[in-house]
Amino acid sequence: MKTTNIPLNTTGAQPESRKLPPSPRAIEDTGLDLLFLVELLAKILFLHGRMSIAAISCHVKLPVSVLEAAFAFMRQERLCEMTSRGEGSASIFFQLSETGRNRAREYLQRSHYAGPAPVTLEAYCAQVENQMLRDVHYTRDSVARVFNGIVVQDAILDQLGAAMNSGRSIFIYGPAGSGKTFIAETLVNLLPDSICVPYAIVVDDEVIQIYDPLIHHVIEQAACAENLLERRDTADIRWQLCRRPVAISGGELTLNTLDLEFDKTTRYYQAPPHVKANNGIYIVDDLGHQSITPRELMNRWIVPLDRRRDYLTLHTGYKFRIPFDVKVIFSSNLTPESLADDAFLRRLGYKIYFGTMSEDQYCTIFRSVCEELSIPYSKAAFKHLLHERHYKEGKPLLACYPRDLLSQVRDLAQYENRQPTLTNEALDWAWQNYFATL
């Protein structure tokens, strides 16, 4: 199998048409309390200074028709001042009064969040339910398209395809370097459709950031703020249209990672990775090598995996329910029976083994990496690698080795200011570096 970075949506299929929720026309349509919105606007003006209503609208992702009512209240309370440089909404500017600045300081002590207006928990839950993974199905043809050009046994592809349709978690295992994580990440390309992801949600007046640019890949679209001043039928741009996400946690995973992360400095929250991965895939890599045991992890996730919902708690003690629409893929170099008891393994659903490769499969990967790194392939040098290194030293044929070894051949050539060549000596040099042999 290849070991290059995985492009998104390599199937060539276009994302299914999915529309963002309609734009709110009044404060009531946002689901937000007027005082919450006033607090947000005051913090934005405090941090950015005098701003036009158009700039505020783009920043907070709400139309002017909503902001006008909030600013009318703020002016009535003498929290802000309005100036105009001409006719029309585009020429209207707002800045805080001294009273407003004092009030904004108090707001910032409670929370530093001053980004796009959040959506309500109820709206978020409804949207997740509307775009659930259970409504997506896969066939042998769609799996074959995604894995075209990737060296994987047909039997494993059949297991993966059926497992993706099952709605249950997947456990893939095998020796380190056999390509487990790469294959798990590639599965996201089976999800060509798009979903709506909010910048943030609000729960009991506390803000929780959902959107993460490292996990959520925004689909290119027309400028979301275009004609925001005049139009009344725009989409609710507090949401973004994204590809279905994939999130990965490795050895750093702890029980705390799976709870809300409250920043005591900024005083707002980051959603845990499995929430950011809602309507997508969450990969737990190197299962069994975390500081928590698999049993502790399963105890934490018994309810989410079985009932498709999770419970999170704010630092105030307020507990709330949130959807758990995540295809969880566990990856480990340990065998299933060494990790936990039968009850745990039963909840893991599909168990798929990734082992060593045949010579033909290994050669296919080796030649592909040679082409990618502009190293002329040599059949004789490849045979030397197999018989004088792998077989004599008992090293299995794993998917990770061609790239790792050939990258060192290229590195040495660059150092010596010459074109890389594939020789027995070059491969022996790379092998000694890689496996620390003498």
Describe the structure.
With 438 residues, the chain is α/β, with parallel strands linked by helices. The protein has three domains: 33-115, Winged helix-like DNA-binding domain superfamily/Winged helix DNA-binding domain (Arc Repressor Mutant, subunit A, Orthogonal Bundle), CATH 1.10.10.10; 121-133 and 150-353, P-loop containing nucleotide triphosphate hydrolases (Rossmann fold), CATH 3.40.50; 359-435, Orthogonal Bundle (Helicase, Ruva Protein, domain 3), CATH 1.10.8. 40% of the residues lie in helices and 16% in strands. It is built from 17 helices and 17 strands. The protein has helices at 27-30, 34-48, 53-60, 64-76, 98-110, 121-130, 140-146, 154-166, 180-186, 273-276, 294-307, 336-339, 342-347, 359-372, 379-393, 401-415, 424-435; strands at residues 51-52, 80-84, 92-96, 119-120, 170-173, 194-198, 200-203, 206-209, 239-243, 246-249, 261-262, 269-270, 280-284, 309-313, 319-323, 326-332, 350-353. The strands form five sheets. Strands 4-7-8-12-11 form a five-stranded mixed beta sheet. Strands 10-13-16-5-17 form a five-stranded parallel beta sheet. Strands 1-3-2 form a three-stranded antiparallel beta sheet. The longest helix is centred in the first third of the chain and has 15 residues, at 34-48.
- What's the CATH topology label of the largest domain? Rossmann fold
Q: Tell me roughly what share of residues is in helical segments.
A: 25-40%
Q: Report the count of strand segments.
A: 17
| Low-pLDDT regions | 1-16, 224-231
Shape: elongated
Question: What's the CATH first level of the largest domain?
Answer: Alpha Beta
- What's the rounded overall pLDDT mean? 89
Which class do the helix and strand fractions yield?
Answer: alpha/beta
In DSSP terms, counting alpha (H) and pi (I) runs of 4 or more, how many helices?
17
The major beta sheet can be summarized as:
5 strands, mixed
Tally of separate domains:
3
**Fraction in beta strands:** 15-25%
N-C termini distance? 29 Å
Give the C-alpha Rg. 27 Å
